[in-house]
Backbone:
């Protein structure tokens, strides 16, 4: 597990492009037949993936957590952006189709990941945060019928925003949040931009009470996103390619514009779970 320390905004304003990338960008997120994890000191979030292809992958704590098992003191959210696969949690197997998600509660010990087709492996994107209690483990689906251990995303949590005229026609699909899937602090969701739209989260904002991680994907090899970060009057950018993630401290804006439309997964942890708790920044105040 790779470790990343926190960064002061007073220091970040002096970073070179390479230093920004070293501190905040996560590349090669999905590696076949590997579990890859990055532990950030910013709200103790762990970001990463499990990409089973030829073999089943088992999640273990590693020396960095000083825990008997990975979720001894943690909770975890997963969204599959690859082919169909399955996640087995303490003997219960969940079939996780493309764009399905899971919430796995604190205290679950044995977690394994498998793909249905090694030629089209599942890509399980992971966010994990410290937890104080155990909430039910559930499979999260965008549509279908609710049953035991299965939650269907509510229509009010599929929000269409923006317009083509503003280059930001997009749909926000909220997976893990209060009232739908309960968690200690973790929230996760997916935002998809329509063809012709390239801007996300603009006008931008900060939220001092939560940090965030973005995973950008659904882009061809030659496409990119300019991810904007930093204090509102000291903005910086990081060029991001397909299936790369970026850590966003609570003091930083987090917005992007791409060379074409794309999709991104957002994950938040921190002081509260109020999705609308944001400090908006007017476009004319950005420097």
Residues:
């Amino acid at each position: 597990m790779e470790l990343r320390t926190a960064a002061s905004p007073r220091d970040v304003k002096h970073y070179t492009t390479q230093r920004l990338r070293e501190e905040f960008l996560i590349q090669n997120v999905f590696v076949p037949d590997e579990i890859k994890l990055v532990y950030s000191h910013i709200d103790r979030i762990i970001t990463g993936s499990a990409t089973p292809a030829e073999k089943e992958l088992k999640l273990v704590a590693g020396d960095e957590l000083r825990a008997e098992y990975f979720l001894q003191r943690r909770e975890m959210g997963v969204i599959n952006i690859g082919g169909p696969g399955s996640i087995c949690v303490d003997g219960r197997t969940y079939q996780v189709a493309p764009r399905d998600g899971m919430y796995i509660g604190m205290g679950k010990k044995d977690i394994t990941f498998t793909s249905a087709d090694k030629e089209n492996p599942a890509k399980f994107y992971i966010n994990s945060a410290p937890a104080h209690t155990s909430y039910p483990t559930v499979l999260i689906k965008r549509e279908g019928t609710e049953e035991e251990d299965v939650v269907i995303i509510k229509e009010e949590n599929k929000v269409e925003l923006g317009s083509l005229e503003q280059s930001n026609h997009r749909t926000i699909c909220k997976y893990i949040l209060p009232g739908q899937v309960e968690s200690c602090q973790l929230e996760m969701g997916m935002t998809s931009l329509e063809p012709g739209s390239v801007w996300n989260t603009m006008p931008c904002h900060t939220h001092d009470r939560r940090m965030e991680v973005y995973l950008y994907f659904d882009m061809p090899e030659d496409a990119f996103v300019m991810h904007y970060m930093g204090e509102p009057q000291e903005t910086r950018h990081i060029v991001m390619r397909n299936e790369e993630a970026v850590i966003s401290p609570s003091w930083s804006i987090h917005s992007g514009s791409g060379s074409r439309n794309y999709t991104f997964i957002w994950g938040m942890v921190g002081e509260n779970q109020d999705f609308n708790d944001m400090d908006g920044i007017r476009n004319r105040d950005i420097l």
